[in-house]
Design a protein that fits this description.
CATH superfamily of the largest domain: Lactate dehydrogenase/glycoside hydrolase, family 4, C-terminal
Number of helices: 11
Shape: globular
Strand content: 15-25%
Distance between the termini: 48 Å
Largest sheet: 9 strands, mixed
Helix content: 40-55%
Strand order of the largest sheet: 3-2-1-4-5-6-12-13-14
Mean pLDDT: 96
Low-confidence stretches: none
Amino acid sequence: MGSRTVKVVVTGATGQVAYALLPRIAAGEMFGPETDVDLRLADIPQMVEKAKGTIMELEDGAYPLLSRVSAGSDRAETHRDVDWALLVGSLPRGPGMERGDLIRKNGPIFVEEGRAIAEHAGKNVRVVVVGNPCNTNCLIARSAAGSAVPDDRWTALTRLDQNRARSLVAAKAGARVRDVKKLVIWGNHSATLYPDFTNGYVGAKKITDTVDRTWLESEFLTAVQQRGAAVIAARGASSAFSAAQGVVDHVRSLMSPTAADDWASVAVVSDGSYDVPQGLVSSFPIRVAGDGWWEIVQGVQLDAFANAKVRATVAELEKERDLVQDLIAGKTAA
């Protein structure tokens, strides 16, 4: 038995990402070997029966740290007193659907999530939005929650993008992923994201002194931005266990001190740093003290190429925000 119990709700619990994520939470990979887990599987009513099958598997796994597991569709129950809300569920992008259409489809869902978290979650709840488009879904949920949950508790997932970028650079440099430091993601989790290689390192050397810059500005940048689509094209389904790994890494990064020679990629509510409009949910380089307190790394120098890419992805975030002004104001579309 662990020394404490953490209450966690995972939405979209019958989806592929959640299916890959849930056993890892139960095994202690997210919250550590000294923490028991009260795990709530949340999904739409017609999927609750399927979620019961996942519960059976979790029970059959005999995880020593899994103190309780339940499933339901009533947010008043699934979100009650939770310490962490992992918002994995969202509507997928359908054939012919534009990104703006997807944002409008998912918006009302995240209005309800934000309200449920404000009303039912624990007073120190932390929220991780995984369901896409995660930055703007996070913005919507945070707005719907009002002042009940402080801005620093809201985050969205760009760690998968960071992991992809570091893996590609490591392979190109003939190094290990663990040797790649300070290569972080700026902006939106979309095809405009910017993996900032100009401030990253491979070992003691800057990435730009190790890997050809022409490759970095072209093939590498495109590969990171389009990696999700490449996975879908190759396997006929979107990223699942790599996304789950990103969620585990994201939460662990928020709970542990950042190494002195590294930064973490986290999409957070902007305070205006780097001229990213206040209130937008944008990925930045983050440092964490280890007690849940984090800060945006200040003083990062962006050259002309990097600055142009950051400005482009921020412009996309502003456009997405403008698409959901009615939802941010607390009104759902009819």
